Input
Amino acid sequence: MNENSNPPGGPKRGTPAVFALAALAALVGFAAVYGTLGRPDNSGLAEAPEPGAEAAATEPGRKAPGMPAFVYKKAPQPLADVNFVDGTGAAKTLADFRGKTVLLNLWATWCAPCREEMPSLDRLQRELGSDTFEVVALAVDRTGLESARKFLDSIGVTSLALYADETTRSGSALRAVGMPTTILIDPEGREIGRLPGPAAWDSAEAKALIASEMRGAGL
Output
């Protein structure tokens, strides 16, 4: 008898390995389904990673004192001039804000960290908003203006203007990896730096960061 053959009625050699491979394939399949179903239905973007997690994928530059998750560009870089609408439905682009330092916050109604962060952006706009600075909170959300309006009303936002992009294309055009993502933009419309994930934007550190960039721009 060939010594490599299996005894009659006995288990075939290699069966444990077959079972292990089948189990691994099932696990991979489950992970793929979970990863797809776990994303919000109305956007291709997920919630942003923890602050600082994307720093390695962004150009290294200066550090913002007290805000280590904020990553500067080595030099201001052009941004896509994305399209969206204001609270009246009028067409807007980022070019409409030229001449101001802008803190652009990309958010969505399904994003829990956005709900926690938004009041600090509202307070920042109330304190610093002017003809030289504006917080632009842009809802990148297929549910549109009315859903975004209800969201802001539900958390008592009173100082932020309503802006929405129901196509959600602005998220990809601005290379946002998730929600929220906040981009600091100079008066020429160029990205100074960004912070993926939520932050306390009315903190002393955040206000110092913005004030420093405004001074540098002569505002």
Observations:
- Confidence is low (pLDDT under 50) at residues 1-5, 16-39, 52-58.
- Residues 15-37 form the longest helix (23 residues).
- The radius of gyration is 24 Å.
- DSSP finds five helices and ten strands in the chain.
